[in-house]
Amino acid sequence: MAKQSWLTIDGVVLLDKPVGLSSNTALQKVRRAYRAAKGGHTGTLDPLASGLLPLCLGEATKFSQMLLDADKAYVAHVRLGETTTTGDAEGEILVRSELRPTEANIDAVLPRFLGEIEQIPPMYSALKRDGKPLYEYARAGVELVRAPRQVRILSLVRGALDGQEFDLAVACSKGTYIRTLAEDIGAALGCGAHITALRRTRIGPFLIEGAVGLEALESDSALREAALKPVDLLAGHLPVVELDEDQCRRFAHGQSVTLPAFEPGEARIYRRERFLGLGRCEANGTLVPVRLVAERASSAQMLDVQENSPL
């Protein structure tokens, strides 16, 4: 069986995921584009949705969890007057309504959904019950009781109403289901609603304007090189601690070091601009290693793996 050489590539790619791909499929395509031996994503984005999907390669996968708690922003295209089985255009229409809300009607109900609200997770979601995602139960025709969850809606901005449809820009906390939000708004208007398109435009400090499309990434080597961001990109919100040579050696071997007084909490650790990983500064002046970055002999090492490696 033929072998394929893969590279130990380290870095972060801000991908503009196209509609129709799962997050994992998008990740594997990016891995193939870079011939990267290892990769992971920072949280899923539904196949129906497009937009910002940060992907981690190599050592950056150690920091992929850092965006899970970040606030996010989306633009949803909402269709009024129809509810579907899935809350989006992929589902079957359950109910149609002849009621036609005006922009004033919509503006009157939107403030109800700002701030801390409760949502019941949809059956068509990846949440698990007894080891199975809810969507598997839903596809089998089984409806399970789901406990409401508290989420936070930071802002809602309505676009112009065109017949039964309008765009809704949403800034929200992690765990918010935009499909459920649209359904609940439709219920408050008395006509029902679902989303026909969804685009993620922001995760934490990262904006869609800084993302690269999949086709361009696959076809343009210069763009591919430029799109690979440093391993420490996702930790950019943390304070920086610079170590001397002896401290660096101890820290890189997983040993605590003593520092002048720093604010307690996590920090990015460097030695002459080389990112060493994350550490936790204790109140007593001790820096404890939390997550270390492996030092590469070179920026890209070759690995031989089977051509049918699970990419």
Summarize the structure.
With 311 residues, this protein is of the alpha+beta class. 19% of the residues lie in helices and 37% in strands.
Report what the structure shows.
The protein has 311 residues and is an alpha+beta fold. It has three domains: 3-70 and 205-233, Pseudouridine synthase (2-Layer Sandwich), CATH 3.30.2350; 72-203, Pseudouridine synthase (2-Layer Sandwich); 238-292, Archaeosine Trna-guanine Transglycosylase, Chain: A, domain 4 (Roll). Helices cover 19% and strands 37% of the residues. The protein contains seven helices and 21 strands. The strands form five sheets. Strands 2, 3, 4, 5, 8, 11, 12, 13, 14 and 15 form a ten-stranded mixed β-sheet that branches. It is elongated and about 75 Å long. The model is unreliable at 297-311 (pLDDT under 50).
Oligomer: single chain
H/E series, N to C? EEHEEEEEHEEEHEEHEEEHHEHEEEEE
- Largest sheet, strands/sense/barrel: 10 strands, mixed
How many β-strand stretches?
A: 21
User: Taking Cα atoms only, what radius of gyration do you get, to the nearest Å?
Assistant: 23 Å
State the helix count: 7
What's the architecture of the largest domain in CATH terms? 2-Layer Sandwich
* Total count of domains: 3
Mean pLDDT: 89
Quote the distance from N terminus to C terminus: 16 Å
Supply the CATH superfamily name of the largest domain: Pseudouridine synthase
Keywords summarizing the entry:
311 residues, Pseudouridine synthase, 3 domains, five-stranded mixed beta sheet, 7 helices, disordered C terminus
